Amino acid sequence: MYAGWSEMAKLWYQIKYLALPLLFILVAFAIGLAVNRMVFGRLKHIVSQSPGSLSELFIKSLHGIPVFWVTMIGIYAAINTVPLGPNLLGLMEKALLVLVLFSLTMVCARTVVGLVAINAQKAAGVFPSTSIFINVAEFVTYAIGLLIILQSIGISVTPILTALGVGGVAVALALQDTLSNLFSGLHILLSKKLRPGDYIRISSGEEGVVEDITWRDTTLRNLGNHVIVVPNSKIASAIIANYALPDKEIGLIIPAGVSYDSDLDHVETVTREVAAQVMREVDGGIPEYEPVVRFSGFGDSNINFNIIIRAREYTDQFILRHELVRRLHMRYRDEGIVISYPVRNIYLADGEKEPTDMEKEPI
Question: Which residue ranges does the record assign to the Mechanosensitive ion channel MscS C-terminal domain (predicted)?
Answer without folding.
Answer: 256-338
